[in-house]
Design goal:
mainly alpha
Length: about 140
């Protein structure tokens, strides 16, 4: 049963920008957690306090939407990168830079994901198998 579930998860993960959405959501969650840090740790509380909670929530939401609605990944990743950069000013320097960097990397990965691209292992195998025949034909 475990092998079947693993195979189904691998298929599901292969049809969407999994790492991009996961990193974007993780960055938003990290920034939300640093908002709850003790006052001695908090560097900057943010503009009126509301934006400090709003922007990481939008990051988390964009990350989840990238995972569960990959057809709209371009819009969500653009909103995600803008909101990630906005957390620099509103949320403890973007969650002490960790959340900001996770969100920016996740947004870039989601934006660059191509849905119809075949997995790299198959491409490399085809190139290796095609390479000896091309060399022998050239000789």
């Amino acid at each position: 049963m475990s092998g079947l579930a693993r195979s189904a998860f691998r298929r599901w993960r292969g049809n969407r920008p999994f790492w991009g959405g996961s990193l974007l959501a993780l960055g938003g969650a990290e920034i939300l957690l640093t908002e709850k840090a003790p006052l001695k740790v908090i560097m900057h509380i943010g503009i009126q306090g509301l934006a400090g909670y709003l922007l990481p929530t939008v990051m988390l939401l964009c990350g989840l939407l990238v995972l569960f609605n990959p057809a709209q990944r371009l819009f969500y990743s653009l909103v995600g990168i803008l909101v990630s950069l906005g957390t620099w000013l509103t949320s403890n320097l973007g969650g002490f830079l960790i959340g900001l960097l996770l969100g920016a990397a996740g947004s870039c990965l989601a934006f660059g994901w191509l849905p119809d691209q075949e997995p790299r292992r198959r491409v490399l195998r085809r190139r290796r198998s095609a390479s000896p025949t091309a060399d022998s034909a050239a000789s």
